[in-house]
Amino acid sequence: MVEEKSSDLFERVKEALPKEAKISNIGFEGCEIVLYTKNKEFFGEPGDSIKNMVGVIKKRILLRPDPSICLDPEEAEKIIKETIPEEGGIKDIEFEPAFGSVTIEAEKPGIVIGRGGETLKELRKKIFWTPIVKRAPIIPSDIVKTLRELIYKESDFRREFLNKVGKSIHSGWKPTEWARLTALGAFREVGRSALLLQTPESSVLMDCGVKPTTNEFPYLSVPEFNIHDLDAIVLTHTHMDHAGGIPLLYEMGCEAPIYCTTPTRDLMVLLCMDYIKLCQREGRTAPYSTKGIKEAIKRCIPLDYGQVSDITPDIRLTLANSGHILGGALAHFHIGSGFHNLLYSGDLKFDRTALFDPASTDFARVETFITEATYGFPEDIQPRRAETEALLVNTVKKTLERGGKVLIPSFAVERSQDVQVILAKAGIETPIYLDGMIWDSSAIHTAYPEFFGRELQKLILQQGWNPFTQEVFKRIGSEDERKALIESRDPAVIISTSGMMVGGPVLTYFRNLADDKKNTLVFVGYQSENSLGRKIQNGWKSVPMEDKGKNVSVNVNMDVVTISGLSGHSDYKQLLNFIGRLRQNPEKVIVNHGEAEKCLSLAHSVHKYFRSESVAPKLLETLRLK
Fold it and tell me: Given this structure, which CATH class describes domain 72-136?
């Protein structure tokens, strides 16, 4: 853990470096040490001096060029284009003088990097900028483009902010004597996930969501929570019940960094922007504006899976694949110097899906595990994945053969892409229309294939077959297009938000298609209590809805099919199997993110099978972890 103060650490680094390195400045980028050199030769070929120093101080060191040695951007861009093979597919080149870096966005990053990184090494020696390569989305994404432009624009702010974060992390600390957790949301309920982890040195918020059916936010006014005392926010994934409240924190004056994966950052912007639009359409005042989203993005510190990062003086974070959603992560917290190890699941899927490998269990130590309980009853067993996918494909084909339309309410992120991959692999040739945010979400997915499971990665990166770019997928981008699709007599598949039918264009489709027996409504995800989706799923033959400001009753004559095995959540057996596959049984298991009875039931089962202390806390309870 971080025990050495920054001033002492910097002195050690300076003493270990050769004088010819000509270090002009030394600081932090988050938990990493960054050195700026005026020596062109040392920047291009630092030898083993940096590597040897990393081995001694056990911290990652970045070598950046002093601005005085960076080649003129116009000349540097010309050299980049001459050096990188044309087949690399360069789409954009952006310079960040504050970091001495140049980002090269390309269709084929591997070609840009070169075998063993040789092309990038060559560029360093030619242009004296640090080259960074990013994959360009195959489907153009306004979100990805806008985000990257914002980050470049805010380079000066980010450099100062990251240095400030680093100083806070390296401020020194006393031996950890206790750690505790406060339940601010999603305990004995689904939605508004938020947990506060505290030690004598640190205050870390895990997730901050909104309840999709009631628009309730976590309890942020309790005595334990002080937004100005937060040292870090850890965001496991971007579904609104985990991420929907993040911008609110920054409109309240939060200054803490957010740690998450890069796809999580991008998707959070997409979903939170849509949430603001939804509030406006419903005549409600949105709880935050685009300013809150922008302030959050400026303070994001993206981490890769497996990357170990100090986030406070006495807490070290590692993110790992959760199997749940693009960039979704299990968050492992190493507290103190071996004092305690906490694993927070967020949401997890311990089974292989069309998109992802099962959640990782590769953790050296887990004394406390916080698990979700969406499917916490013993009878909550999902069918086998192969059977589930076959049922979906057969249901779609059967409806299309009789000339009907298939309506699939779906979450914009993960579930829609899961369905897309399944239908694309099945060779469905009838047009599949994507409405709501699904097209934009899929575009973001195409920018991060390295976060997919090994099988899908192989299809995309090695065999050149990308399910998201198949011609069968069509975008619905206007009310006129939506109306034309509804009125068309041609069979079709429609995947539309929202997944629980609590808003979005799916309601328009349902109102107009529900009365026709040729059509089929296919549920592919969890339907929360009191949602319209749950009522239909429970067999209601007439449901109340609003149409142009009037209350109407909609007859449900279309077929209703539930495909339960596509859930991005683990079922009962998978949750227990996950715990059983950890290297050691956790001493304590805390159950959240589930209806009250399911949380209590799963806690009982965990104690029965693993003899771990297991609890299902109520909202606002505080537990001492050690």
Answer: alpha beta
